[in-house]
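S.,

Sequence below, as promised.
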Amino acid sequence: IRDELAVITTALRKVKHKVSCIVSRRSQLEASCDDMHKLLCDKEDALAVSSEPIEFDSSHHFDLPIDLCDEVTQISLFLGAVSVVIFGIGRRHGEFLMGVLALILSLAMDAQNPHSESHRQNTLSQIPRSMETALSRFKLDAQTTTYAVCPACNCTYKPTAGLNSSRARYPTNCHNIPIPEDGPCDEPLLQPSADGQLEPIKIFLYHHFHDYLAGLLSRPDLEALMDKPCDDLLASIGSPPHIIKDVWDAEFFRTFKGPSGQSLFIDRGVEGRYAFTLNVDFFNIEGNLQRNASTSTGIISCACLNLP
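The prediction came back faster than expected:
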């Protein structure tokens, strides 16, 4: 239903006639689609959590823009991405690095074959000037949802977005009742942003777990590595190690039951069985120096124990 509503809304946006009756009818249909979208979101939130397998579209993990670039461009973008993401240099420094690399490539191509102008221009045009564009070629950004958090009681509110607008919408005030005997919290949730729009005062950024796991499983090499701990432990179930060197050597995984409650968790059959740890930590993003500014930021993270 959600996909069909998106198709209808896209078709309505293509209606460009300025006749008043057509404009009015288009607005009515867009409002009806928006109401149906809100109703669908409310119904989804009320659904009970199912233990059945879910279907998740992970096709975007197999469609990487970097694959469309030639080898020279791929190496150039990889160098810039590694410098920023892993080595931690600033984005402006990364852009300078890619700019110098593009200049070196241009000079090298001219020296090797000065008459191949089209090939040189094609290669250099694939190297972006901004690091943001370069990183987007690798699709490193995960799917996220930004929740509004009440500054007083920390109640979270999932955004709603109409089909006719990509901007997230939140309640203006908190309607949570922290104490049953009291009334609603009624704390303001939004504040004006630099562009004049309302944005949450406090946020919780949720990274979609299913998208993260799908990203891991979209790589055959990682999927094989993630299956290996269960298979190795099942093969050595009768001979426990004398020295615990890894979490998979612990007694817990040797006795932990799977979803059926009958067989062991590590007896995966044709399935994939993946274990995660849940970690919660708060830290001061301003640093821990004395008399320094204090801004407490919390993180709730999952770590896949199947990864080496």
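The chain is about 40% helix and 10% strand.

Coffee later?
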